[in-house]
Amino acid sequence: MSLKSSITGNTKVLCVIGHPIAHSMSPIMHNAVIQDLKLDFVYVAFDILPEHLEKAVEGFKALGIKGINVTIPHKIAIMKLLDEIDPLAEKIGAINTIKNENNHLIGKNTDALGAKVALLNAGFDIMEKNVLIIGAGGAARAIAFSLSKECKKIVILNRTEQKAFSLARDLKKIATIPIEGKKLNEQHLKQYLFHSDLLINTTSVGMAPNTNTILIPKEWLSSHLFVFDVIYNPLETKLIKDAKEIGCKTLGGLDMLVNQGALAFEWWTGEKPNKILMKNKIIEFLNLKQC
Ligand SMILES: NC(=O)c1ccc[n+]([C@@H]2O[C@H](COP(=O)([O-])OP(=O)(O)OC[C@H]3O[C@@H](n4cnc5c(N)ncnc54)[C@H](OP(=O)(O)O)[C@@H]3O)[C@@H](O)[C@H]2O)c1
């Protein structure tokens, strides 16, 4: 596949790092908008093992890489290797985007605003709503912090109870709303699903290739819920399919992915990318893969 027809000695490099990384959709959506805007950039992916992270960060400076997206498992570990961290990302405790300004590396978290914008664009008004978040990893942290100023209450349920407590404790430092962190189990799920307006799955359960796995049986859902699953591969998870069948309003992870990517792209290049093009390129790619 030809990504850019005229890479020259002036072409600036953007990239995503993670391990594994071959599944990443970021090169697809970013190269599409680079071409669309006729910018002299190229976006590539690097598979970086955790033990090579420090050298990779030195490499960003040595090679003059202009912008970097960061994904699993480096979102937390990389923070201490950067020169500056945006205050919101500091509170969240994870970054997903780095800008290289004259060899000064600044880390930000665009997942947080990306998720919030996706919810607003989907017609969900978070003001005064009860939110139930399943999971307490990087995505949960970003989303919980982004919603914690406007919603009425946040409950976090996680398989590893300690991580739910720890996220709730960190959120309480900045939020004035009630926050609870508890063990993910049948009793808590049934109890909090009943009292929630918005259910957000931030775990990787249901992600390809294990697309038939769910944490919440369909019978426990009810039509008053808005269901947001941050997984974007598959485009429609089993949770989202079940929720639609029950009559819930739903949102998949693709819009969050595109929004976080668009925020990063604008920060790096100063140009607003076409988000519809970014989204369509990913849909096209994932649909082709399924054929
Ligand atoms: N749409 C987007 O833009 C976007 C952005 C970021 C992430 N994501 C997606 O979000 C998902 C999570 O990413 P992350 O960065 O938050 O990963 P992470 O930090 O590794 O967290 C993973 C979370 O999933 C939970 N989990 C994993 N397997 C589980 C299981 N079998 N049963 C119950 N809980 C389980 C973990 O629970 P424990 O703490 O008990 O291990 C943890 O809470 C991934 O699918 C990722 O692709 C999407």
In short:
This protein is an alpha/beta fold and about 290 residues long.
List bound small molecules. NADP nicotinamide-adenine-dinucleotide phosphate
Count the strands? 12
Strand order of the largest sheet: 2-1-3-5-6-4
Q: Percent of residues in beta strands?
A: 15-25%
Helix content: 25-40%
Shape: globular
Q: Unreliable runs, pLDDT <50, ≥5 residues?
A: none
The succession of helices and strands, N to C, reads EHEHEEHEEHEHEHEHEEHEHH
Largest sheet: 6 strands, mixed
CATH class of the largest domain: Alpha Beta
Secondary-structure class: alpha/beta
- Give the terminus-to-terminus CA distance: 18 Å
| Architecture (CATH level 2) name of the largest domain | 3-Layer(aba) Sandwich
**How many structural domains?**
2
Give the C-alpha Rg: 19 Å
CATH superfamily placement of the largest domain = NAD(P)-binding Rossmann-like Domain
Question: Which terms would index this structure?
Answer:
single chain, alpha/beta, Rossmann fold, 2 domains, 6-stranded mixed beta sheet, 6-stranded parallel beta sheet, 20% strand, binds NADP nicotinamide-adenine-dinucleotide phosphate
Write structural notes for this entry.
With 291 residues, the protein is of the alpha/beta class. It folds into 2 domains: 12-108, Rossmann fold (3-Layer(aba) Sandwich); 112-254, NAD(P)-binding Rossmann-like Domain (Rossmann fold), CATH 3.40.50.720. 39% of the residues lie in helices and 20% in strands. It has helices at 26-36, 53-63, 87-92, 110-121, 138-147, 161-172, 186-195, 238-246, 254-269, 275-290; strands at 12-18, 41-47, 67-70, 84-85, 97-101, 104-108, 130-134, 153-158, 179-183, 198-201, 226-229, 249-251. The strands form 2 sheets. A 6-stranded mixed beta sheet has the order 2-1-3-5-6-4. Strands 9-8-7-10-11-12 form a 6-stranded parallel beta sheet, sandwiched between helices. Strand 5 (97-101) and strand 6 form a beta hairpin. Helix 4 (110-121) packs across helix 5 (138-147), helix 4 (110-121) crosses helix 9 and helix 9 packs across helix 10. Bound molecules: NADP nicotinamide-adenine-dinucleotide phosphate. Residues 72, 111, 135-140, 158-160, 163, 202-205, 207, 215, 230-232, 253, 256-257, 260 line the site of NADP nicotinamide-adenine-dinucleotide phosphate (NAP). Residues 72, 111, 135-140, 158-160, 163, 202-205, 207, 215, 230-232, 253, 256-257, 260 line the site of NADP nicotinamide-adenine-dinucleotide phosphate.
